[in-house]
User: Fold these one by one.
Assistant:
Number 1:
Amino acid sequence: MTFPDFSRLSATALAAKVDGGNVSPLDSINASLARAREAGAGRESLNLILWSNEQLARRDAASLAEGMNRAGKGGRLAGIPIAVKDNLATLGLPTTCASKILAGYVSPYEATAVARLREEGAIVVAKTNMDEFAMGSSTENSAYGPARNPIDLRRVPGGSSGGSAGAVAAGIVPLALGSETGGSVRQPAAFCGVVGVKPTYGRVSRFGLVAFASSLDQIGPIARNVDDAALALEIISGVDPNDSTCSSRKVDTYRDEFLPLATSAEPLDGMTIGVPEEYFPEMLDPGIRALCERSIDLLKSLGAKVVDVKMPNTALAIPVYYIIAPAEASSNLARFDGVRYGARAETAALRDMYAETRSKGFGDEVTRRILLGTYVLSAGYYDAYYRKAQSVRGLITRDFRDAFGRGIDALFTPTTPTTAFAIGALTDPYEMYMSDIFTVTANLAGVPAMSLPIGRVGGLPVGGQIIASHFCESTMFRVAYALEAALGGEAHQ
Amino acid sequence: MTQGKYEMVVGLEVHVQLKTRSKAFCGCSTRFGDPPNTNTCPICLALPGALPVLNEKAVELAARAALALGCTLHPVSVFARKNYFYPDLPKGYQISQFDKPLATAGSVKVDVGDGEKSIGVTRVHMEEDAGKSLHDRYPSATAIDLNRAGVPLIEIVSEPDMRSSKEAGAYLRTLRQILQYLAVSDVSMEEGSLRVDANVSARPVGQKELGTKTEMKNMNSFSGVERALEYEFARQCALLDRGEQVSQQTLLWDAAKGEARVSRTKEGSHDYRYFPEPDLLPLVLHSEWLAGIKASVPELPADRKKRFTDEYKLGNEDIEKLTALPLLSDYFEAAARISGEPKGAANWVMGDVQAAINASGVPISEFRVRPADLGQLIKLVADGLVSRSAAKVIFGQMVETGKPAAQIAHDLSLVQVGDDGAITGWIDEVLAEHPEEAKRYLAGEKKLQGVLVGFVMKKSAGKADPKRVNQLLTSRAGAG
């Protein structure tokens, strides 16, 4: 390997080396590919990576090097190997959503977020394992088998973006893309001890993200530190003519706002941080509670005023989520019908073709949610379920508006109620659903939220969550950056 | 059969393809007749991850149509997904509008001879077309052509206000004419750019409540709709006469056999699981934009008919013919204005112009004789510079060469001679050559006038102005 510290370098530091000519794009990519082999990222071991093509990655590195020679400089992510969740459309590598129904499918176009990272010099080295169609919280619901947590191989990496979080944690890539519908970036980031961001709904274009629940889905970056995550979000954010729900609001320069605070003794001076009691229920792991309390003390020492806040509708979030998300999913997944692409069962009659293609192509959890969603949208049930869920969603959103309207800049909570659980431990779907209890609210309300490592319990990483108001990613990053610095390296130990 | 005891009640759902260059939610061409699946992209193929983006032009055309139908346009309307599986429906749902449509509460005025009647328009909403299933291409398989998938449509839903097949036909013809005037659609049933589903029921005359309705689909012409309604009404009347119930079902019209077959019963009806389309924001129409659309609504057929009657003093029959198609009526009006001869212009347009257009097969917009040129020709006739028969010859040349009327008249020496000196000379010659007729005519035998005029015309090789020939001959007889 050309440089042994590859796995510890941040994306910004590595890009600076590449841009400065100290490391070639090919060296960087080779280091990533070597690390993937060494860590056993493929099917046989960690099972974090579903698809990769070393030749293609090296070719991309070579053409990047050429482009840099011509232009005299690289982009902000020059030569950075990235891993991309398998539900994001990419050129050259399959996009299967870890589902049999899309076996062998290669997209003829690329997701906006992926294309924007490439424009800055990033190179896609892997498509990562995930819960099928992003439905799950452990990356066990994959047609290609469960992924493993690189911190503890007997445990799940979380999900559904478990492959992406695991690839960053294992030092294979400094940066990855995941997607969120109910916590699928933040929860695996917490389980794997890395940083994961769910942007404001509409901040990042969904074009090329295979839809699960359109009104909740957002693409988010996963990185080893706050700075890298902020940079990646800056790059992928902003208006996209291909997504009508993507905001035309100007993208803030997050890093310009928090980097100068690095030398400040009280970087959070003047900020008010709310701690909602509903996110600290009795069932919360005591170790996680203790780490949260320590982080809260640190926030105070950084100059923030910390106040208690009530979010009375929090408990309704999981039931509301499991009506709205499956309803939208039942419709979004209707296109996988065997007619135009993907797997098709060969039967004589059309109805049988649909039934068999979909029964064989979808796994159990996906089937369960399609059935659930179809039911709640049915004539006679729509008002009782979907309509009511939408109005309760409004109440949950109001909780956030009320809190942020009362002068609170950000909320601090644990990301998950437990640390990474053992593979196969959660067999009851409802138990699994509860692991998103602290994250799903931000998706329902559309507010930005992120998880960063705040320590370990029993050797397993714990995530702290920072939630801000709509399009206030700057505030969120400022708090996260200050807290990360205050925690020092210890959160990763 | 005792149909007289019952009253027919009809409501119509009309799907109209909007004439946009690109599809409703992607940039693909809407061109008709291209090779299968050539006008497709990730969006209209419903590839994983693709998202719809609304075509503003489609909204513009839909809003214009809704305004012209007297509807209230809603400042906020919502797209919804209509979920069902069909091979030519790529996403597994159709993007449509459901409980918050673009426009509601309009009307169309029709007249079937017993006075004007208003047919309510319940709603106008936007949606996308599906693709086409081709069942006759391969012996044991269905082929799918997705060129049409995503083409913008409006659905115009009427109230159950029609009481006869004739009224239904009149409603459809009036609707089509309005849409033609608006230039929002090709409105061709043959090419499928206008499609009609009919809801029909029968009830005893005098009864207020509606009877059980059936839905008739698959008609491919307006007269087919009328025939299908008659057929279904008769069937329902017969059922009711026998004391049986009409069952709610969907029927497919078979034009060749002149009968309908059941396609779906109520039990088999779809649950479309409508819900708001989360990939599109609510459609918000700003008042300034709306004002622009209002200003873009042209003169509608009813207004134009009234104005033509007032301005050009033409008979009802002429007015109907001249206003049938917007471009034809524009053509007439231009020719009438330039010539100052509305009646003459009407006759030319309904006669020679239409015949020439039909014969050449070109659309009127590409017809070689522009209305200004026709106006000039009509003026030449009115001014007595060319004869009516010469004008026909000149028109024929105009169609062929595109040259102006005056030039052709000159080149072919068809300009009439109105000069008294020349005409008097020809009269003198004719009278001299036919002494017997001359004597009798001058003696007062008026019926010889026509014969003598004919001789003079012949002598002048058709160039003499027949009106002036008549006048001069008469004055000669009076003097004698």
Number 2:
Amino acid sequence: MVTPAVPVRVGVLALQGDVREHVRALAAAGAHPLEVRHAAELSAVDGLVLPGGESTAIGRLLRVFDLLEPLRLAVAAGLPVFGSCAGMILLAREVLDAPPGQPLLAGLDVVVRRNAFGRQVDSFEADIDLIGVAGGPVRAVFIRAPWVEKVGDEVEVLGQVGDRIVAVRQGSLLATAFHPELTGDIRIHQLFVDVVARNRGRRGQYR
Amino acid sequence: MSDGLTAPEPAQPDDGHARAAESPAPAGTQVGTARVKRGMAEMLKGGVIMDVVTADQARIAEDAGAVAVMALERVPADIRAQGGVARMSDPEMIEQIIGAVSIPVMAKARIGHFVEAQVLQELGVDYIDESEVLTPADPHHHIDKWRFTVPFVCGATNLGEALRRIGEGAAMIRSKGEAGTGEVSNAVVHMRTIRAEIARLSVLDPAELFAAAKELRAPYELVAEVARLGKLPLVLFTAGGIATPADAALMMQLGADGVFVGSGIFKSGDPARRARAIVEATTMYNHADVLVKVSRGLGEAMVGISAGELEPAARFADRGW
């Protein structure tokens, strides 16, 4: 584990969704969390979390408040990003079962199917083992959750539920179909904060 | 971190509460837990849930950035105007709305009408609103919501009422306001009341919480939990009378986690535009510059009626207890 002398500054996109839970988990993982609502605030962070929420609503608000292009550029320039659920959808290259025109950041070379596990009555919890997360399985909370249907060559599959891919990593981009921010288990946030800390050496590239 | 997620798990339903449809969730997984139910509401935070009566309206709401729609046959303003018994909507109409949008679909059941709730769960509705806007089916008992896989939202005018609903298994609370009036004052009063009562609990000596539970007529365990957390153990939205972007921002600044808009959108002059404006105001509720921009040129707001002029029998907020 990297323990930087100065905590890394990790933004949480705060347009809609469970922002507070990510802020708390990041703080518990040793980062300095910041809410991000304006493009200018992006330049102050070493990494960014895209929270759970409704991907259609967040996508529209990204456009309305002029965050879509700055975020795409930041992702393309190597800003570390972790997305949970709706955040995984926004980070993907392609999404299935979404309304036409869904804005995507297209950082992760994956195809994601929205609400793939079904409606709320099908939402579930499960114990899953994740590559890169020591200390036993994590309790994963899936809420109207997507899954990853296809992955590109650069994408590492970190975890599955049955034969469905639910956690992936590609360089400094991390995504889960479930909500680690809801359980109080901060190991996945810790993993992301470590990625951000290692990346900070290259700061400036995406500012 | 996992505040409020320690609630008892529902007993396995063994009667009409069980859900017949096959779940695609893989073997060895658990559905309908308190964490899954309350977690769903966490994902709606900072968002707007809109009442819709047709598939077209549902699409307008989704395009405007609603986080969910509430499918119903008549918006509260029409229920008020037309009178009669207000019941659960026709399943066909709810199915059309489910088919029309990709965002969550909620629907209302009458207070205490657990069979309407069984029907809505079987339809695949994502959240059930056990709502005072419909005519109550039971003057004494609310639905035992622990028995269902689908989560419930319930209205409350004060903290005791909110905690009684949570005790019955509600996974989300909304302040009641006075639905169908287009007048925000009751929503303000209810939100301020809930907040003030929470603040009062948080400064009490632990020994005083027993008497507080008695005064609030609420389960002691929940009273102690709220005193410890300084908030409800789940998401608190606001509802009832929100008609403008400024109304939505007002309720957010008063501490709401999100907003239900009933008649306010589709009873106004330009629903699509007003829907977008209320969504944007809810996101940027602390940014007056955005509120100026989105409040401009919205056309007619719903006409509304002053909630203070309602006869006691016409007050929806007094239904439920």
Number 3:
Amino acid sequence: MSAIRIPRSPKVLIGAGIVAFFAVLTIIGPYLAPYNPSATNFNANLTPSSTHWLGTTALGQDIFSQLLVGARATMIVAIVAGVVATILSITVGVAAGYLGGKTDEGLSLLSNVFLAIPGLPLLIVIDSYLPTAGRSNSFVIGLVISLTGWAWGARVLRAQTMSLRNRDFVEAARIIGESRFRVMVFEIAPNLLPVLASSLLFTILYSIGAYVTLAYVGLTSTAVWNWGTMLYWAQANNAPLANQWYWFVPPGVCIALIGTGLALMNFGIDEFINPRLRAGGLSAKVRRASGLPRRPRLGFTPVARPREMSAVGTKVGA
Amino acid sequence: MRMLARRLSLYLVTAWVAITVNFLLPRMMPGNPVQQLIGKLTGRITPQQVHAIELAFGIGLNQGLWAQYTGYLHQLVLGNLGVSITLSTPVATVLKSAVPWTVGLIGVSTILSFLLGTISGALLGWFRGSRMDSVIPVATFFQAVPYFFLGTVMLLVFGSSLHWFPVLGAYSQSVTPGWHWNFIFSLVRYGELPVITIVLSSMAGWMLGMRNMMITMIAEDFVLMAVAKGLPRRKVIMHAARNAVLPSVANLSLAIGLVVSGALLVELVFNYPGVGNLLLQAVLNEDYPLIQGIFLVITMTVLGANLLADIFYFVLDPRTRTEAAV
């Protein structure tokens, strides 16, 4: 396996930048917070000022501190859910795709069932039965979310595994007597990486949405600060109608930003998997420099070669 | 037909799983949540109600799990979903008045968002690399915003600040519901903002998927052939789009669950009298029979919608029909 080429389109760079920013915030956010997010010793409903950058809540808590501290719980749940769900989808997807037959039928049925059941209502039902201790535990919530979020990845991975399974190099590995496990882990898995990365990003995106939604509905502990709890309290105190935009807009925008970052990175991976999409990702400057027409000609897919930065019109599928 | 039969059996299995999960969850959860709820409600509800809850969740029964399960299935077949704790009315009755609102709202929004997303995605794919590509990051942003947050912002900006749309509720309090123009007009006006919210949030997925398929499709020989024949551009785009749309339609049935999940919360924001609003009330009040009933009804409705989407695909793609003959 050669070194993985990382696509460097502006989309991917911006996406990675946003995600990196929030990753750093997850680690240092709680230390940066100027005040204790739960402390109620300020005046209530202050508008943004130099002491309280985003004002205070109806209980007199510093909103900026809540935003900084809330990043951590939001991201931890999303990462736990994303990683667990991805492990589940690799196990189910690769096994189904590689083993085929009855195993495939059973596992595909399982993932299709989980895809067909609407995720959020199921989450709400499971969560409403959780004891309070479970609701305040990021890992428990993450696990519950992963249960509803693995099926899509399993489906995509299964399709990719099936297409790899009969390639010559896999056949060769089988013929020289590698065990099934070894073929799956060392021959097939590395070639699944782009699909896997895309599915991981997608699952993290889903998990952030699911967690924030649960918190907004009031189904996670309101003592744990995350962006959803902030929205829950803002809604409970009628912040939107009182025009306290500095209370409910920042957490929502943070959620949207990190989601956009993840999705932009995913575009990069899509373009990596399917080179035809790549031409669309070239900036106008690159296109001009490499002499490409502004609008790609029909039937010809312009391909930019990253090394020498020259582009040629290549007939694809001829 | 084989494809449809396969899908149908998948949905039957899914329905069974949902029902069984619904049965097992309250019985398997640690900490006995239902027992705790009864403890909290003591004094507020009649002994008959306590008994009904205990029966429904299998507490203090001298019955095995299997006997409880068959009893539960029997009640479901009879359409008996239990009695809501807070509303003291049968869950089925409560749901009957809420379901049409949700089906209407989400149905209209899903169809609109699919049509708009697919058409704009086809155009974006055809004119790839042009200035239109700048729509992509914007669309991605809207896709990443939680439905309920976008709803809140829309409500605030276009509802209570600019007064462009009437908000809160499904129709004006001054008209009486019925099949006359006043009511229908009010219904449409009040529905606009929630529908726009759901469409904005869910459209990007269709748009980007369609764009990708369109770009792949354009490189095919049959499109080049269509251009070479001198067909007008509009016809060529249609020609390519018809073929590019198939994966979108195939995904339609899977995406419905996601859209429903998001849209349920939009109801909460706009105080729409549908199932989503009801579910959140039930969650706040820990009304377990109602939560369970709503979950079942939502799941069954989504499965029904999935089947419709599959039939649509079946009609659209002749290959699924010839498969049986081969």
